[in-house]
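Quick one - inputs below.
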Amino acid sequence: MKNRIRELRTKHNLTQEELARKVGVRRETIVFLEQGKYNPSLKLAHDVAKTFKVKIDELFSFE
Amino acid sequence: MNLKQFQKIKLGITALLAALMAVAVTQQNYILAVVAVITSMLVIIVLKKQVKEVTVDERDLEIGGKAARLSLSIFSVVGAAMVFVLLMLRDRNSEFELIGSVLAYAVCGLLMLYSLVFNYYYRGVEGRRRFWYLFLTMIAILGFAIVGLRGFSGEDDWVCQNGQWIKHGQPSRPMPVTPCRK
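Output:
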């Protein structure tokens, strides 16, 4: 599963730490998410998508 | 307090607790051990509440779950194998039987506890049923602990004295076949 979290985070001028705080997880979780090494829960995916004001399916894509 | 400060303090408390436990065991002061464990747990709980950052998130819980399941599987399989080995070698050393029995009991207890906790989450127990489930679980754990303590306390067992097995209480098993060498 691929995602656009790093791209959107950079676009919104957010650090990994800031994004982590906004969605209520640890920074390491954002690192693993961006690397595609962790599949988030529906709630976390929703929270991240909400932070970037996009739909979940715009954030994640299956290949 | 931030997460790093909390982790450093937690490490310090753990080191202090280990030192206190060592002192308590060498001096056979078990009250000190119990007080030290309870105090350190309370201090850690209070300090954790002071941390503003997220200390545990969903990824930690997922990893924790996987680690716990794997650890349980390894402990159960290795423990069960050890029990058979110890029971097979009981003729060489009579202590092996007791060690094997305690290990078997510990493995069964852990598996029982895992099943109860697993069912609790699996069924999504809520409301009134939650109280009864927790109550019955506590009763089961307490019963298991009492039976274990009673069984391994040596109250009802064969005692080796002056080269002879002597009946102590009402042992449920027959007299050991291993030679008594004390």
